[in-house]
Amino acid sequence: MDADKNQSILEKQLKTLGQKIRIDILKKLKYAQIPLSFSKLQKEVLGHNFSTVNLSFHLKILKKSDLILASDEGYSISFLGEQIIEKILSIEQILNKQKKSQMIRTSKYSKELFDIRKIEEYLVNEGDLERHLAKQIAHEVEERLSKTNIEYMTAPLMREYINAVLLENGLEEVRHRLTRLGTPPFEVFKLFDSKEREFSPENFIKRLGSDVSEQFLLLNLLPKNLADLYLSGEIALLHLNYWSLRPLSLYVNTKTITDYLFKKNTFNPQKIKSCTELNDLSIHLIDLLYQLSSFYSEDLLLGDFNTHFLSWFDLPNMKLFNFNTLTSQLFRFNTSFNDGKSHLSLGFNNNGKIPENLSILSKIDEKFFDSLKVQSRDCMSPLLLLNLPKISLIDSGYDLLKSFITDYNKANLFLCNKNNAKLLNSTIIQIPNPEEDKIILDKILINLHTISIEAKKDDNKFLELLQEKLKSIFELFTYKEKLVRKKLYPLKQWKFFISEILNKNFKDAFRDSLKSISFFGLNEAILNHCGIELDRTENSEKFALKVLSLMKKVIEERNKLDNNNFILSQPHYDSYLKDSWHNGLLHLKQNLNRYSSRIIRTDSNLSLNKRIALFEKFQKIINGGTLFIEKLNIDQLSLKRFLQSLFESKIEVISFRECFT
After folding, report:
1. Structural domain tally of the chain?
2. pLDDT averaged over consecutive 10-residue blocks of the chain (661 residues)?
3. Residue 57's domain is classified under what CATH number?
4. Which of 149, 222, 292, 346 is the most exposed place for a label (fewest CB within 10 A)?
5. 203 lies in a domain?
6. Model's pTM, two decimal places?
């Protein structure tokens, strides 16, 4: 009799479960941690098709069969219902395996049977998802996969299914944690098919690795709010692929280098008298530069290069091949980065002395530059920082300067005015003390134009938003230091560089590092906010100066607060801003409206003297690095007058990178 009764109950339950909608209801309630309201359950089970199914009817049937419970809080699964749905899930899995053995091609390119438990563990371990939610997501993924006709799934396709289910369940943060790194195949094909001669197989692999490094930084290493600042164009980060791995730049006085070379290689400074010994010294220098190249992403600046290295070349029997050996090695090193940029800067200082022949350069310096000029026509030349004395107004001095500017790669030549010893690296960051070696941790730029758009011509709102961005910049520097410290401190080479060459405690290496804060989109911001460019009206000029003065004030307050070394610097002048950042959309047959790094517009109608006077106002505020850039096409007489105006001004560093074009 009991057997007949049980058989009747079984038939009743099987009939109840004979419709898929009811099994779906039980599945949803099984994984719910709290009772679900009718509307919530309707949305979870039916999505947008709730008008096609009478959910109330099916809930009544399930409740009558003691499979679910109803209360004021909502619906939940009963103990009986939970036991039965577990058996149903097991049966489904058996049937799926019987129907076809679904295979997964793993990220290691091997094939293995589909296993729902691996999805669950993946969600728990890598997605940091609670176990009950992981089970729910895994079963939803399995159910969808069972409806496909794919013989085997790839790991990326599997992740797409998982991500879709996560998003549908409102678990975007989990999906973010599980995002895989890599370059889209379309972009890889473009790189693979590139016709550029410089794009070697090594560069192909390097580029793909750089893409992964960038994605890893933005998706996994930085908090989402800070990564979003970069992705939305509100800030600019340099060398994103190395951002978490290396400082931006290094400044080392050449005396530090030569002292180490003499100590390590047992050179006797008093006995360097032969060409062979000089060649050996040059080769040892380049070898050391290669060792240091793994510790920065932008450039290495060697201060007082002529005073503490070229001075050894002042020998009676000096041969031209000694200079050629040195310069060819410098070019070889500088081009080894394979990115078309200069990663070596050389500082020249005459200590305020004018050479006896009233020339700009000493004879040794001239020979070195002559060798550089010959080779710079075919190779990437180092950046030269030439510290000029007051030049006598003689034609020979101007002839030499014009010849040098014209023949050398003028994009890599900075002239320091009136011997102020204002050394700048290639990203326009000032070295405050040329005798003190420095790590330059980074340079982060704020997009002032996007602030102006959000401020909607409200001065107070603009300045308030600017202060918020500066707080984020300080936070980014904290992450940068933490990430780079973590990566470099275990390395023996880093400890060697800090202790043996810089003679510093490697634990305190970043304590006094320079942290440069900069900006871009200044002219665009002022035009948008004030209605007219900063070089055209006094009101626009005043507001621009007010914006940068606030940046300087906040930076100085932060330095006092935690004894730090933040500095305000001019945006660096290279292709980064114009190639990567723009303030408009690409329209048919139109160029992108790219941001400029200039403080004063290229097409400004101000006279030279007025441009100089305006630039000096900004230079007083931006004391962490400024560069006055001119585009000229002039004869010798005009050049003489032009240089005279510059050398009589308070401008600290000058570039002729666009002149004589």
Report:
1. 4
2. 61 77 84 83 74 80 87 88 82 61 52 73 84 85 72 69 84 76 58 59 63 80 88 89 93 93 72 77 92 94 91 76 86 83 85 48 78 70 78 56 67 73 86 91 95 95 97 97 91 90 82 93 94 94 97 97 94 71 48 72 88 94 89 62 79 72 33
3. 1.10.10
4. 149
5. no
6. 0.74
